[in-house]
Q: What sequence folds into this?
């Protein structure tokens, strides 16, 4: 991949929380020089429960140049953004659980910045796992701001999820402690828990090194929400076009639960895409190129032509 023309920028935004306190949030952007600004379509990427945005979507793997989702879409002409949610990565680490609703508030703060910098109110948005819930909740609460929404590893009610059934054994621990420890073994398990062999462990080790350089703990709020507070979304209130991408081996949600959610989405411009050879860590899996293709195809869907009267 030719990345010579791809530039990056870093920003900080503030979110006001209880008692008028502020939380400083890190925002990161990659774009091709000639495509910067309002001419380039904006793609905003939303990270999951256990790794920050920049490391999830612009992962630098030694000896490889084909793991950065941000580089891939910037090279295609998109203006690509992500952020580290409260308590993650380079953003302020607080005593908040940093749950799904908090994440949607983070996105609102970042989207104000995106609009100022690009002049665009509507963006393409992708979220994976708890990032799917954050992104979908933002779209639900802010109609007209998400042009097309793409989600993977989504959960609706959580019914039939083997991963969530296992996590619920620790739900009281999540309630009591706003943060949980992560280490190399935990990060590696993200790539192997559903189907070993669907990811290269060089990517897992690169993600672990990048994340642990920033800290050895992450917030518990999204785990708590997915174990005890589902559903956090109302699909009937998500008006924008939606694409649900389902990795073949992903254990976070059962297909009947996802199809129930899909059926309730009001837009008829929607897709449910099954992708073989991928598990939960889909954007960093061996077959990530198929996942990226599904995203690009949905974003490039032609507009409707007027029907004959």
A:
């Amino acid at each position: 991949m030719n990345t010579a023309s791809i530039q990056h920028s870093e920003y900080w935004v503030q979110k006001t929380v209880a008692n008028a306190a502020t939380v400083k949030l890190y925002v990161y952007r990659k774009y091709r020089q000639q495509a910067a600004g309002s001419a380039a379509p904006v793609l905003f990427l939303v990270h999951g429960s256990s790794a920050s945005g920049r490391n999830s979507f612009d992962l630098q793997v030694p000896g490889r140049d084909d793991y950065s989702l941000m580089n891939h879409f910037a090279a295609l002409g998109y203006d690509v953004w992500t952020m580290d949610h409260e308590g993650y990565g380079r953003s302020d680490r607080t005593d908040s659980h940093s749950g799904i609703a908090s994440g949607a508030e983070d996105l609102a703060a970042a989207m104000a910045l995106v609009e100022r910098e690009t002049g665009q109110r509507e963006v393409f948005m992708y979220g994976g796992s708890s990032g799917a819930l954050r992104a979908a909740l933002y779209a639900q609460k802010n109609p007209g701001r998400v042009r097309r929404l793409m989600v993977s590893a989504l959960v609706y009610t959580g019914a039939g999820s083997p991963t969530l059934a296992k996590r619920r054994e620790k739900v009281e621990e999540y309630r009591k402690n706003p943060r949980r420890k992560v280490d190399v073994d935990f990060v590696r398990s993200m790539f192997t828990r559903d189907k070993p062999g669907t990811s290269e462990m060089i990517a897992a080790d690169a993600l672990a090194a990048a994340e642990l350089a920033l800290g050895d703990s992450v917030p518990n709020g999204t785990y708590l929400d997915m174990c005890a507070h589902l559903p956090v979304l109302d699909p009937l209130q998500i008006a924008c076009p939606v694409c649900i991408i389902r990795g073949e081996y992903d254990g976070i949600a059962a297909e009947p639960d996802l199809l129930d959610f899909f059926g309730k989405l009001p837009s008829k411009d929607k897709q449910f895409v099954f992708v073989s050879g991928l598990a939960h860590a889909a954007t960093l899996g061996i077959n990530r190129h198929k996942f990226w293709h599904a995203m690009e195809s949905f974003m490039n869907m032609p507009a409707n032509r007027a029907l004959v009267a």
Q: What stands out?
A: The two ends are 47 Å apart (CA to CA). Strands lie at 6-16, 22-32, 42-46, 79-84, 123-128, 146-152, 179-181, 217-219, 242-247, 270-275. The chain is about 35% helix and 20% strand.
